[in-house]
């Protein structure tokens, strides 16, 4: 039982035909205002330029009435997280992101803050991957080596962001996304949620709800 959870896990921060985060504006506004969030602490470690990435998020959220601060600018990361009203972990490379969170020794702290204190957590793409049991089902290239694939475990299953259905008439002869996810499920006996573009998973307490105009696909043993 995790009655304190207030989580939004987005497949992506961009959707074709809309501005950055615009497709999730209503979801973010509802989430933040329900918890009286005025300032969002952004975790930019999944991309190389942390200042530029934080400014991108600031440019999106500030016109909606939310201040954005970058975790990388804080002299004491643990204190900044503890004092945060909301934590937003951005997308990019999941392996780089998880490696940095372990390097800074922030995994256990973030888990405690979200599951026990109810601090709002928003993840997008890689930020969604690290919110799950493990990063085994990311689409990213393993350019960095975290000490383990185990992640924040804020939800008891894996997610595959940017999930794409197989093209029936494709001439591609490699494995499809479905085949790769089914292989993970068969090996680990753990469920995976394929989260399509433009969709998000809202988790409030022990209730999870799919948001957006498309369905998700659940892979299970």
TrEMBL record:
<keyword id="KW-0378">Hydrolase</keyword>
<comment type="function">
    <text>Hydrolyzes dipeptides containing N-terminal aspartate residues.</text>
</comment>
<dbReference type="Pfam" id="PF03575">
    <property type="entry name" value="Peptidase_S51"/>
</dbReference>
<dbReference type="GO" id="GO:0008236">
    <property type="term" value="F:serine-type peptidase activity"/>
</dbReference>
<keyword id="KW-0224">Dipeptidase</keyword>
<keyword id="KW-0963">Cytoplasm</keyword>
<dbReference type="GO" id="GO:0005737">
    <property type="term" value="C:cytoplasm"/>
</dbReference>
<dbReference type="InterPro" id="IPR005320">
    <property type="entry name" value="Peptidase_S51"/>
</dbReference>
<dbReference type="InterPro" id="IPR029062">
    <property type="entry name" value="Class_I_gatase-like"/>
</dbReference>
<comment type="similarity">
    <text>Belongs to the peptidase S51 family.</text>
</comment>
<dbReference type="GO" id="GO:0016805">
    <property type="term" value="F:dipeptidase activity"/>
</dbReference>
<dbReference type="GO" id="GO:0006508">
    <property type="term" value="P:proteolysis"/>
</dbReference>
<protein>
    <recommendedName>
        <fullName>dipeptidase E</fullName>
        <ecNumber>3.4.13.21</ecNumber>
    </recommendedName>
</protein>
<keyword id="KW-0720">Serine protease</keyword>
<keyword id="KW-0645">Protease</keyword>
